[in-house]
Design a protein that fits this description.
GO terms for molecular function: S-adenosylmethionine-dependent methyltransferase activity. The protein is an alpha/beta fold and 262 residues long. The chain is 48% helix and 21% strand. The protein binds S-adenosyl-L-homocysteine.
Amino acid sequence: MYEQSTDPYVSVWGENLHFGYWDGEQDQATVAEATEALTDKTLALLDAARDERVLDVGCGVGAPALRLAGQTGARVTGISISQAQIASATAAAQKAGLHERVSFQHADAMDLPFPDAKFDSVLALESLHHMPNRRHVLGELHRVLRPGGRVAIADFVLLGQTTPEGTRILEDFRRTGGVLSLGLVEEYQAEIVDAGFTLEQTLDVSAQTRRSFAATADAFEAARDRVVPFMGAEGLTAMVQTCRQLAELPQAGYALFSAGRV
Ligand code: SAH
């Protein structure tokens, strides 16, 4: 999915391939500002220090990793399943002059090519919903984290049981968004604990991120001429409709988690 969609997506939404965070109705932040705000909320949970080794799981085109390294002086390794993203992210690190602190490599989060306890902290910013088995990937994150290290996760969650109509909308979300792992926030917390972590914080930011559904629909509709060649007119219509329905679905939520490895 990302091999084909990353460039158009970046041109429509920006280099932060995740939701935005708006602090209430009156917040006038642009998508670019709001997506950076969500990066910052997530990085605040990580609280990385200078020279720490951070793994960024599902790094996109590198914007969060570069922000983290730029702000804290941490050394970041980003991984993605998409070769095209790794090429873009590597170029971005060069351009930012951060290539000595930040590197990117092609890898599958389900099978991390790193030894046990290699990293001081792990970031997974809106990537774990793509994993075919979230329990397994959480085990991998735990394995590569050193004792005393911390993980910060930002991801889609469900806030309760849906009606049959809501369940149908979520099925569309799974299909059009490549969403393979989606469940109740309590299930997510239990899986984090079962992987061996001590859960520290859970922040329900559903209200602050909800505007992203409509903003995505608006942005893609406005860029119709550019996006139809890669997703087709029907694909665009389906995606926009799903976003608008999700915007109205109370159970479609978003959470930030932090957890420590003892
Ligand atoms: N964290 C980035 C990108 C989020 S998009 C940002 O916030 O900008 C989701 C990311 O997860 C993409 O980079 C995608 O390539 C990656 N991804 C999906 N499945 C993966 C897997 N199995 N292993 C590694 N990365 C994966």
